[in-house]
Each structure stands twice: as C-alpha cells, then as structure tokens.
Amino acid sequence: MKLLYLLPLVTSFASALWPQPSTYTSGETVLWIDGDVQVTYNGAEYKSHSYRENATSGAPTGGEIVQYAIQKTYATIFEKNFIPWKFYSRNSNFEPSNSDKKHVTALTLKQNAADPDNLVNALAGDVDESYGLSLTEEGEVTITANSSIGLVRGLTTFSQLFFKTTDDCVYTNLAPVEITDAPKFSHRGLNLDVARNFFPVKDIKRMIDAMAFNKFNRFHMHATDGQSWPLEIPALPRLASQGAYESSLTYSHGDLKELQYYAALNGIEFIIEIDMPGHTSSIWHSYPELIAAFNIQPDWSTYAAEPPSGTLKLNSSDVYNFLDTLLADLLPRAAPFSAYFHTGGDEVNKNAYTLDDTVKSNDSAILQPLMQKFVDRNHDQVRSQGLTPIVWEEMLLEWNLTLGKDVIVQTWQSDQAVADTVAKGHKALAGNYNYWYLDCGHGQWLDFVIGPSSKQYWPYNDYCQPLHNWRLMYSYDPLSGVPDENAHLVIGGEVHMWAEQTDRTNIDRNVWPRACAAAEVLWSGPKDAQGHNRSQVEASPRLSMMRERLVARGVMAEPIQMPFCLMNGTQCTLPT
Ligand SMILES: *[C@@H]1O[C@H](CO)[C@@H](O)[C@H](O)[C@H]1NC(C)=O
Ligand SMILES: *[C@@H]1O[C@H](CO)[C@@H](O)[C@H](O)[C@H]1NC(C)=O
Ligand SMILES: *[C@@H]1O[C@H](CO)[C@@H](O)[C@H](O)[C@H]1NC(C)=O
Ligand SMILES: *[C@@H]1O[C@H](CO)[C@@H](O)[C@H](O)[C@H]1NC(C)=O
Ligand SMILES: *[C@@H]1O[C@H](CO)[C@@H](O)[C@H](O)[C@H]1NC(C)=O
Ligand SMILES: *[C@@H]1O[C@H](CO)[C@@H](O)[C@H](O)[C@H]1NC(C)=O
Ligand SMILES: *[C@@H]1O[C@H](CO)[C@@H](O)[C@H](O)[C@H]1NC(C)=O
C-alpha cells in the first residue's frame, strides 16, 4: 500500500464516485470481493433474485426494484467492470498484491421506513432517495435508506467502489468507506426526442440503464413531433401506422409498456410528452382535417420553426374530439409509471393560424383565449387521470396563460425564464439550451442553395453552437438568477437530446459522458461543499473513470481526455 500511496492519482481514486456524494470518507485498504458474498435484505438472507423482467400488468414493487438492483450490482461488479490502468503512471505496478487477501464478507441492506404507495409514480419530493453506506476494513457493508429507491441509489454507489484486475479478480482499494448522501434536486431528467429520428427499444433501454447509473430519476420521452408519430395509440391506430416514418419504426403498446416497466425497475419515472398544438404535423398523414398550414413549401419558416410546418387547429371540435380519444387512451397507460404528463406547448407559430379555417388570424388577442381553452381542456383531462401537467415555458411566459397552480413549467430559453416562472408561483424545471442541449454544435441540418444564402450562412453553424462540452454543462447552475425565497420551486431540471442529427448510431456518444455533468449538478448541486463552483480539476479524472464504467456496461461514451492526462495527474491543467 505504501507504493500506491506515493502515486499521484490517489486523490482522484479516493473520489471514484459519480455523482459526488454529500459526505464521503475513504481509506486505502484493499478488499477483494467474490460472488459468494452474503447479502441480507431487510433481515432475510437473500439467495436468488425474484422480480418480473417484463410486466404483464402494473409497475414493479419496491421489493422487485431492490432485487433487480442487487442483480445489477453483481453484474456491474463482476461482469461489467474495468481495469483502471489509465489512472496510474505508465509502467507502474498498479494492481494490488494477491497475497493476504481480505474480503468483503457481508452486504446488509436495511430499509428504515415503508415505501410510499406512489413509489414509481411519485411527485417530486415524495420519495426519499437518501442513503447511508458504510464499508468497514473487515469487509462488512451496510446500506441504509428510507425507501427502496434509496437502497437502489446506495447500491449504485457501492458498485462504483470496485475495479477489476488483469486476471479478472475484483477489489476495492478504498476501505474503509463512510458515505451519507441525498440528492440536491428531486427531478433529475433526460429528455429524448424519439420523433425526429427513431430509436429502437433496446437503445432506449441502454440509455435508461446509463441514466440510472448516474442517479437520474426521470426519463422524458418526447414521443411525437411534426416529422413523425412513432407512438402507437390503439384507439387511433392510423396515427402511427401512417404517421411513423416507416411502419416498423413505431413503439407498440407492448414496447411502451416494456420501456416504462424497465425505467421503473431502474428507479426512474417515465414521463410521456405529446407536444401540441405545434409540432403536430405528422397527424396530417392520418387526420388531415385536424391540421392547419401543413408542410408549406418553400416558405415553411413563416409558419414553423422547422419543416414540415403544421399545427393542430385551435378552434375545432374535431380536434377536441380527437384529443379526448387520444388522451383517454394514453393517460391511463402513463399513470402507473409517472405522476406527470407533458402536454408540450413550445414554439407555437401564430402565423400558422392565418391558414386555420377555424380561426383565420394571427392576432394574439384572438388566439390567446383559444389557446387558454385548448390547454385547459387538456389539463383537465390530465388531472382527471390523477396526473400533473407539465408544459413548456412559452405557455406561461409568452402566451400568458393562466395555468393551474399544480402545473410544472419546463423552461429552456434562459435563466430568466426560470426566475420568471417561479416568480409567478409555479414549480420550474431548468435546462437552459445554452448549457444543457446535447444536440447543439453539430452544424446546420438545413441545406443551403449555393448563392447569397449559402454565403450568409457559411460556415453553417447551428442556432445554439458551439457544441456544449461537459465543462460548460458542468458550469450550469439551475438556480442562477433565482432569489433564495423562490429556490424551492425549482424542482430540478433536464438535459435534452433533440434528435434531428442523432439516431441509434451516435446516440451513446452524443449523450455520454456529457449528460453525466448534468447528473452531478442535479444530484450533488451546482456548488461544492464550500459553496464554490465545482472544480473541473477534481471532476475530470472522476468523470473519465465514470466514462470507463459506462463503456464497460456497453455504452459507447466518448473519451474526454487522452490517457496521458489521466496517467499524469494534473499535468493537463492549464496554469492560472
Ligand atoms: C423481456 O425483458 C428482457 C430483458 O429486459 C428482454 O430481452 C425481452 O425482449 C423482453 N420480452 C418481452 C416479451 O418483452
Ligand atoms: C431517513 O429519515 C430520517 C428521518 O426523517 C432522516 O433523519 C434520515 O436522514 C433519512 N435518511 C437515511 C438514509 O436514513
Ligand atoms: C370559433 O368557432 C366557433 C364555432 O365554430 C365560432 O363561432 C367562433 O367565431 C370561432 N372563433 C374564432 C376566433 O374564430
Ligand atoms: C400576422 O400576419 C401578418 C400578415 O401576414 C404579418 O404581417 C404579421 O407580421 C403577422 N404577425 C405576427 C405576430 O406574426
Ligand atoms: C403576453 O404578455 C406580454 C407582456 O405583457 C406581451 O408582450 C405578449 O404579447 C402577451 N402575449 C399574448 C399572446 O397575449
Ligand atoms: C461560477 O459559475 C458561474 C456560472 O454558474 C459564473 O457566472 C461565475 O463567474 C463562476 N465563478 C467563478 C469564480 O469562476
Ligand atoms: C507522468 O507522470 C509521472 C508521475 O508524475 C512521471 O513520472 C512521468 O514521467 C510522466 N510521464 C510523462 C510522459 O510525462
């Protein structure tokens, strides 16, 4: 151990965890672990895992969620682990000696309070995710929590204490460990747009798995948009059969259930968004009479932020009947897996209503009461299924709608939007596009005719360039500009993966490990224990280690540095 002690990177090893726990002390004692470690769960010896992998009905129980997490902890430690050579000096003998082996002998999981009834579809703050973890030098591990989800978060931390050797043994060199931990924000989400490009179920499951490993607890599926409608609605079968890009690129009733259940098993609530009234032109393929201003070409930009233009008509009983049927089908399927339903409302283009035969105007004074009625009807229906509505910020801040006090407002355009939302008494989600949009910086996806327009747009940067690197994402403070007395209304935030230029081939590297930076801001808070901005120098090797762990579990996360930087301590730091 003396030798290890002299190595430059012992400090970063000591903080091998991502996201950073609230309090954490560790030592340098090596303990090995093998598959016969005795596990006790709430007083009973734990022998075999018993949980339903796929639901035929309902959500998983707290017990199933913990049993799944135990199985996954085994898989992470023994099968999806990595050899940490990158984190030691070149040519050093970094593996602990095999002689005098001490082992982890017992893992005890203790839940000190009953789970709430709404464990997997709880409102922000209703589930206590805190946990305590202790690993003694004698190899006894205790994880305590007040809920099943708390135990899951503790097990996730536990699995990050271990490394693999070249001959496939597994050890930690951090004993003894003492941790107390709790999230700073109760809504820690990732929004995936599955409409601009389609993502197969298995890719979304891999995303959810990686999210859980980062202690995210909300998966927001931006399920439909103007370009395609992949979500099957059994009561309106033509929506997906004609609105999807191709008939196989849909999420069937069963696919959705499989995804929702998988998220719940991982301690993640699955929030569905049907964005409306804008971003709906894919409905035209099945119900053309409901859509105004469909795919105006070439002047689409007068009527929409992106082609194809098109919006649900704003004053149409046919649209209302359609929405009644749509929501009556979908909401009961959403409710077992989430407390929320997202009704969208971003980027509504007023000019589209000049071509809406039920309105024929782009005058705010005419449109605003119609929008109020449109949203009120949707929200009443959402509430009637016991769900809480979420809307994009424009509904509150641009359309000045009067929203129910229960409505969560998802901001995206600025820090000011967060401050304005909470000033109006609403709970807010943060996620400023200048920091937390993962799609930015890949350049334009529009094509420019060679001539004046190609000259004007050269070098074809996109509206939110440059690419938001992890350091920028890590510097984002969801509470920036929010007065202390309103800070409690910021329930958390989401990082966003809009998918115009992302599909299954690049989803992993477009999201990971950059989304880890947001995960840590949301779990650990934007400031360190001293109240200072979090240190990149401290975080960087820890994030690189997290990246190795993601790769080991089959997620093709990008490297953030070359091994040289990691092998050489702080030698890639720019002097002040
Ligand atoms: C059940 O779950 C497993 C593992 O998640 C998956 O591979 C399989 O396809 C699922 N089966 C069905 C019928 O959904
Ligand atoms: C559990 O609840 C108790 C009482 O509210 C609290 O003191 C404790 O911090 C919670 N968390 C853990 C991990 O025990
Ligand atoms: C909305 O539709 C109703 C019923 O067709 C009509 O009477 C009313 O004038 C319309 N409102 C506007 C603003 O066009
Ligand atoms: C409404 O339409 C008119 C005529 O097409 C246009 O000049 C005006 O800019 C539009 N107003 C808004 C708010 O877009
Ligand atoms: C909402 O209020 C703002 C500020 O008073 C105003 O500029 C805007 O036009 C209003 N929007 C609508 C749709 O009435
Ligand atoms: C801390 O981060 C904020 C952004 O969240 C930034 O405005 C501020 O300048 C940073 N402070 C220092 C000392 O770097
Ligand atoms: C990397 O760092 C170690 C420890 O400081 C040092 O011995 C070694 O020479 C460095 N290697 C290079 C290539 O700079």
From TrEMBL:
Ranges of residues in domain Beta-hexosaminidase eukaryotic type N-terminal: 17-161
Pfam families in alphabetical order: Glyco_hydro_20, Glycohydro_20b2
Biological processes per GO annotation: carbohydrate metabolic process; glycosaminoglycan metabolic process
E.C. no: 3.2.1.52
Top EC group: hydrolase
Signal sequence interval, chain numbering: 1-16
Alphabetical list of SUPFAM superfamilies matching this protein: (Trans)glycosidases (SSF51445), beta-N-acetylhexosaminidase-like domain (SSF55545)
Molecular functions (GO terms): beta-N-acetylglucosaminidase activity
Keywords attached to this entry: Glycoprotein, Glycosidase, Hydrolase, Signal
Every Glycoside hydrolase family 20 catalytic domain range: 185-525
Listed GO CC annotations: membrane
UniProt-annotated catalytic positions: E347
Catalytic activity: Hydrolysis of terminal non-reducing N-acetyl-D-hexosamine residues in N-acetyl-beta-D-hexosaminides
PANTHER family assigned to the protein according to its UniProt record, in alphabetical order: BETA-HEXOSAMINIDASE
Family note: Belongs to the glycosyl hydrolase 20 family.
Name assigned to this protein: Beta-hexosaminidase
Organism this protein belongs to: Mytilinidion resinicola
